[in-house]
UniProtKB/TrEMBL annotation:
Keyword Ligase applies: no
InterPro entries, per the entry: Isoprenoid_synthase_dom_sf (IPR008949), Terpene_cyclase-like_1_C (IPR034741), Terpene_cyclase_plant_C1 (IPR044814), Terpene_synth_N (IPR001906), Terpene_synth_N_sf (IPR036965), Terpene_synthase-like (IPR050148), Terpene_synthase_metal-bd (IPR005630), Terpenoid_cyclase/PrenylTrfase (IPR008930)
Domain Terpene synthase N-terminal: 28-203
Metal-binding in keyword set: yes
Organism annotation: Camellia sinensis var. sinensis (China tea)
GO BP terms in the entry: diterpenoid biosynthetic process
Keyword annotations: Metal-binding
Lineage start: Eukaryota, Viridiplantae, Streptophyta, Embryophyta, Tracheophyta
Protein name: Uncharacterized protein
Terpene synthase metal-binding domain ranges (all copies): 264-437
Top-rank taxon, per record: Eukaryota
Listed GO MF terms: magnesium ion binding; terpene synthase activity
């Protein structure tokens, strides 16, 4: 649509008194507070301590000969947020365990061992069948009641059941069976408070659904309370936790400086100022120190998703939103001169940031070709999907469920964030064939005209 400068000028004058507001709560994370974050765990002395403790833990991989002991050791390492320090050791240990299992069925090791074995192997992408639990079920397919006295086994069976694939009925039965027993145990008056808390935690959300990094601290406290705690592993977990937290604090200070220098927040008072929350979301996706750049890029993208979403949902008139969408689709900042000042500021900051992110990814990965066309395409699709919803609102149109879901797939920002994550972690060896696939899936996918309300 051709944006008429005169028409927009007249409408902007009227709209200043008619702009909607979501009445968002003010941002609680002040710039000075973020810049004041300080920690001692950036010092080299702590890095040396970690390396020394890592060597001791590596030796423990060799010492853990018993199948269950090795599985529990790997499980503890992952729950404590240490898996990135022992990726090779974990892979080799699991490969060895799988090879052993192929020649020595472990059904006789008990339900707990089988459930732990199943969960860890399936989490790591091994092709492990639900039939491993068939030996614990009756001919009718129900789990045998004699196993219900083992709280530890039931807890592990519940966690394993949440990794079920479609049609895996044994695991569906396992979930119902273990859930019922664990709820009865939780409600019993003869159970220690510590056990009740552990079971309630698992029943509320399984490991598979939790954000790993934000669960690490509770696992450290749980390990501390055990009588047979591995002191070396516990010490490493605490030290690593503090050092990773220090990395996150430094990241946040850097990102807050970027945002303060890029965009005056007072000009975007209608929108959510959620930079810290955006960063915490990115930490949940990849907390490891080596993913610093990924967290930075993802935080910037999430921040602009929120701001642009508020422009379409709250601030802009339909004519302004059409102009904004055209500017994004053409990737041209000349059109924005016809928009309100705050939308100009937003577009310019957004435009510069996405160009910068594309350049940084290309430089860091050492790629010859720019990924900007792909990022531009998903952002343009995102804005066009938001424009569809703005038109629905403007016309008081109620979409069908299919229309809503089809458009929501894009307006949810899933493709934007997924593509950025894809490029951020992709290795050069897989790039060529996958980029060809992306060209087919993304570059040639238009926004369905059936969703547009004329």
């Amino acid at each position: 649509m051709d944006c008429s400068k005169g028409m927009l000028a007249d409408q902007q004058h009227v709209l200043q008194c008619q702009r909607r507001s979501a009445n968002y709560k003010p941002n609680i994370w002040k710039y000075d507070l973020l810049q004041s974050l300080a920690t001692q765990y950036n010092e080299e002395e702590y890095k040396r301590q970690v390396e020394k403790l890592k060597e001791e833990v590596m030796c423990m991989f060799m010492e853990a000969v018993d199948l269950v002991a090795k599985l529990e050791f790997i499980d503890n390492i992952e729950k404590l947020g240490l898996a990135n320090l022992f990726e090779m050791e974990i892979k080799e240990a699991l490969d060895t365990i799988v090879a052993f299992k192929n020649n020595h069925p472990i059904t006789e090791a008990g339900l707990y061992a089988n459930a732990l074995f199943f969960r860890l192997l399936r989490q790591h992408g091994f092709n492990i069948s639900q039939d491993i639990f068939r030996g614990f079920t009756s001919k009718m397919g129900t789990f045998i009641k004699t196993t219900n006295c083992d709280t530890k086994a039931m807890l592990e069976l519940l966690e394993a059941s949440h990794l079920a694939l479609e049609g895996e009925n044994i695991l569906i039965e396992a979930k119902a069976f273990s859930t019922g027993i664990l709820k009865n145990i939780t409600n019993s008056k003869n159970v220690e408070n510590k056990v009740t808390k552990q079971l309630s935690h698992a029943l509320e959300l399984p490991l598979q659904w939790r954000v790993q990094w934000y669960d690490v601290k509770s696992h450290i406290h749980e390990l501390e309370s055990n009588d047979n705690t591995n002191s070396v592993l516990l010490k490493l977990a605490k030290l690593n936790f503090n050092m990773v937290q220090a990395t996150h604090q430094n990241d946040l200070k850097e990102i807050s400086r970027w945002w303060k220098n890029l965009c005056p927040v007072e000009n975007l008072s209608f929108t959510r100022n959620r930079l810290v929350e955006s960063y915490l979301w990115a930490v949940g996706v990849a907390f490891e120190p080596q993913h610093k750049s990924f967290r930075k890029w993802l935080t910037k993208a999430i921040n602009f998703v929120l701001i642009i979403d508020d422009i379409y949902d709250i601030y802009g008139s339909l004519e302004e939103l059409e102009c904004f969408t055209n500017s994004v689709e053409r990737w041209d900042d000349k059109e924005i001169q016809r928009l309100p000042e705050c939308m100009k500021i937003c577009f310019q900051a957004f435009y510069n940031t996405i160009n910068e992110v594309a350049h940084e990814i290309q430089k860091e990965k050492g790629w010859k070709n720019s990924i900007l066309p792909y990022l531009h395409k998903v952002w343009a699709d995102f804005c066009k999907a938001l424009l569809v919803e703005a038109r629905w609102y403007n016309k008081s149109y109620t979409p069908t469920l299919d229309e809503y879901l089809e458009n929501g797939l894009v307006s949810s920002s899933g493709p934007v964030l997924s593509l950025l994550a894809f490029f951020s972690v992709m290795e050069e060896t897989t790039r060529e064939e996958l980029v060809d696939l992306l060209a087919k899936l993304i570059m040639n996918r238009p926004i369905s005209q059936s969703r547009m309300v004329k």
